[in-house]
Each structure stands twice: as C-alpha cells, then as structure tokens.
Request: fold
Amino acid sequence: MTIRPILIHPDPRLKKVTDPVARITPEIETLAADLLATMYDAPGVGLAAPQVGVLSRMFVMDAQRDPQAEPQPMVLINPEITWESDELNVYEEGCLSIPEQYAEVTRPAAVRVSWLGLDGKTHERDFDGLWATCAQHEIDHLDGVLFIDHISAMRRQMITRKMVKLKRDRAREMG
Reply:
C-alpha cells in the first residue's frame, strides 16, 4: 500500500468526468488499497480516484466515526445512485482536495447505491446520515463536481483563491 499525494483544487483533473472501470485487475486492487491507505492517513471519510490523479470511476469510504468501533472500509467501483429520498439533509462538508475549508451542502438524506465490488459482483445498499452524504460527495468527484460547486459563486471564488494561495505557499516551501 502506498499513500498517494492528494490533488489540491484548482486542478483540471478534479473537474473531469471519470471513465468506468472495465474489469477488476491487479492495478485496480492496488489502487483500492492505496486509496484506503491515503484516506485513513489524511484522515478522511472518503476518497475518489480522481483525487489522486487517476480518472477511474471508483472511490473508497469509511464513515464509521466511533473510534471504539471496527473500521468499515468500502471500495465502490462504477457506483450509481439508483434511488434518493425526498427528505433532505444539510451537512457541513469538507474535502481532502480543499483542505480546511467547509461549507453546508444540502443533499438527499438517504440514497441507494449500486456498485461493482473488488469481488467482481454487483452490490446494492441503502445509506443514510454521514454515509449517504459521503457516497454522494464521492460520486460527485467521479462526475467532476466538487462540494463547492453546490454553494454560492462568491463563497466558491473565495475558497478557490485560498486554495491557489495554499498551493503557491506549498510550492515555495518545497522549493
């Protein structure tokens, strides 16, 4: 397992629609393990392949927040929302590609997601609470959408300017 560098917004790769995964290969299995290791290291509750520069339609998540509970890592390949609740939920979202910036985003409170697992089988599950928010946030990444695309243009521009400055400062420190 390798902890991979996480792309920081603005990066054109974060705005691209990803390609479906054709089949489970050793490279996909390695990517899944790397995504999980990177997500836990960050630490975060979800991480999509494009966030590490891989334009494949897959993400990992573990929204188990109780430190006493067993981790519940999930790998979702070619995920698709097949149902969403009429009831909405507002959650203060953040993103590993937009560090230390948060905004309230309104999304369906519950969703049903269908996906291909590493076992090559199709899975389907209903998610609610943080799990539902996380799944929708990560599927957005696969479609080139960031959580800041759900907020006001003025707030989005302010956050983008902060990220440009952060990237400039990091580049200066490196070099």
Remarks:
- The first strand starts at residue 46 and ends at 48.
- Residues 12-174 form a domain with the Peptide Deformylase fold (CATH 3.90.45.10).
- The chain is about 30% helix and 30% strand.
- The chain has one domain: 12-174.
